[in-house]
Amino acid sequence: MLDSTPQKTVTIKLDGKDISVPEGATIWEAAQAQGTLIPHLCHKPEPGYRSDGNCRACMVEIEGERVLAASCIRPVQVGMVVNTASERAEKSRALVVELLAADQPDQPHDASSHFLDMAALNGVSESRFPARDACHVPLLDDSHVAMSVNLDACIHCNLCVRACREVQVNDVIGMAGRGLDAQIVFDMNDPMGQSTCVACGECVQACPTGALMPASVLDDAQHGDSKDFDREVQSVCPYCGVGCQLSFKIKDDEIKYVEGVNGPANENRLCVKGGSVLTMFITITA
Ligand code: FES
Hints:
Elements: E1 9-14, E2 17-22, H1 27-33, E3 59-62, E4 69-70, E5 81-83, H2 87-101, H3 114-121, E6 147-149, H4 159-167, E7 173-176, E8 183-186, H5 202-206, E9 212-214, E10 231-236, E11 245-251, E12 254-260, H6 272-285
Parallel strand pairs: 1-5
Antiparallel strand pairs: 1-2, 3-4, 3-5, 6-9, 7-8, 10-11, 11-12
This protein binds FE2/S2 (inorganic) cluster.
FE2/S2 (inorganic) cluster (FES) binds at residues 40-43, 53-58, 70, 72.
């Protein structure tokens, strides 16, 4: 039976405008509902993704509070006065992106990454900060036939960990090490292709920087463009009867890679067959 209880709302002032927001919503969600995109990196507004609030790329100013707040994780409260575009908030967000940009590779692995979109949204095109020493830059892991791991582009946003652990409940990916040596690992720091990864591809869909990408998108130098396709064809995975919906990205009349889309049976997720076997088939037969 459908729950017909009316949803409670709270009223806040967002960028000078009074708005009603469902109780429990975050400031980020309230802003998005008003058409304001607050930059975000570790937050993924898709089913199953818990906000983590770790990157601080989404900071906003709340009247009466001493410090800025991470909008992706901060719930709205009655009477809250939020300014998403104050000079202080904008400078803080741009600084976070600039610090992260310092450690990015000279040429991005994904020319159309979410990170680059967010850098542009913050007006950041280069970094004033020095890059980390070469000895701390992780090396390429191309041990998996369907996915490439270039952790030199990783920003430790933790989205792949949540994708693997909480969304797909596989728990293969974790964080290891401390300080400059902290990095994403598969199992006990195994190469991805030799780990217990089930190749669902969820981490690739979640990664905002191109550190995890479909191998079929990248050239031999590990560069590619996830948005470089001519058309998208939405379909249903042909492997079983669950009915997972997916999207084929097609370039020059050939399938470049496959992504899950938000169908009722899968909410963007795919299993090894839809997520990787299709892509592997493409890679091997290309
Ligand atoms: Fe809000 Fe990362 S996007 S803290």
